């Protein structure tokens, strides 16, 4: 039976499972060919359907998830080199290049910016809260 | 002339649990996380592709805005699913439905063709409900 003949919802479930697999295993050395095999798809059909649903090929999506998770780690104060390896990149230079392309700044600049913001939020939190909520909540503006 | 919505507020029963729900299940991003007095944070999240809209996950706790009686009433209203704070959109409703269901999100209505469009309804961890539809190409 060709995959074209499967009920639409069945195909969706397979693609969604593949997406969730990438979401939870992004840090590992994922072989995307294996994912299409496990989804019982031809590689071509798998990539085509994945891109139709998520707007990215599985490989592009894997890079996207790694960089998204890198921003979370950096926000939490994890160093750039540790973040690079934690999210599954082997080369710091390719990580930095992809990060800059997707986030708009280098990981080091992003790290410095987030550290500054975090400090500001802790020291002067009321700068980040609209004043109406501050007064409604009975807090005074510092 | 009003131009945009910059902040909106969703009242939640537990801020930590709401943060987990909105970020790990719905995929929203944390924008601001600042201390706001004992046991409270100014916690805002945004939809992944709408960073300019900050959604405040505002805890319904006693003190400040909520007196004891108001707190009781608000808690009951939220739990009972009185509030539907927003209509959300996605690129592919069937895929998003399957994904959210796999993550444990509770749906009040599966994707259904209505006369006004293709729609599903789900609730957050507090009881607030949302309509989820597909982006309309204009």
Write the layout of secondary structure elements.
The complex is a heterodimer of chains A (142) and B (138).
Chain A: H1 8-25, H2 32-38, H3 43-54, H4 58-75, H5 80-86, H6 92-103, H7 107-123, H8 131-136
Helix pairs in contact in A: 4-6
Chain B: E1 7-12, H1 15-25, E2 29-35, E3 41-46, E4 54-59, H2 68-79, E5 86-90, H3 93-102, E6 106-114, E7 117-123, E8 129-134
Structural class of chain B: alpha/beta
Task: Catalogue the unreliable spans of chain A.
Answer: 1-5
- CATH superfamily of chain B, by name, is 2,3-Dihydroxybiphenyl 1,2-Dioxygenase, domain 1
- Rg from alpha-carbon coordinates of chain A: 21 Å
- Described by its quaternary structure, the protein is heterodimer
Mean pLDDT of chain B, to the nearest integer, reads 93
Number of helices of chain A: 8
Description:
The complex is a heterodimer of chains A (142) and B (138). Chain A has 142 residues and is mostly helical. Chain A has two domains: 3-55; 65-132, Arc Repressor Mutant, subunit A (Orthogonal Bundle). Chain A contains eight helices and no strands. Chain A has helices spanning 8-25, 32-38, 43-54, 58-75, 80-86, 92-103, 107-123, 131-136. Mean pLDDT of chain A is 87; it is low at 1-5. In chain A, helix 4 (58-75) packs across helix 6 (92-103). The longest helix of chain A has 18 residues, at 8-25. Chain B is of the alpha/beta class. Chain B has one domain (7-134): 2,3-Dihydroxybiphenyl 1,2-Dioxygenase, domain 1. Chain B has helices spanning 15-25, 68-79, 93-102; strands at 7-12, 29-35, 41-46, 54-59, 86-90, 106-114, 117-123, 129-134. Chain B has a four-stranded mixed sheet with strand order 1-4-3-2, with helices on one face. A four-stranded mixed sheet of chain B has the order 5-8-7-6. In chain B, a hairpin with a 2-residue loop joins strand 6 (106-114) and strand 7. Chain B starts with 6 loop residues before the first strand and ends with a strand. The A-B interface holds A 8-9, 12-13, 15-17, 19-20, 52-55, 75, 121-122, 125, 128-130, 133, 136-139 and B 7, 30, 32-37, 42, 56, 58, 63-65, 91-92, 94-95, 98-99, 102-103.
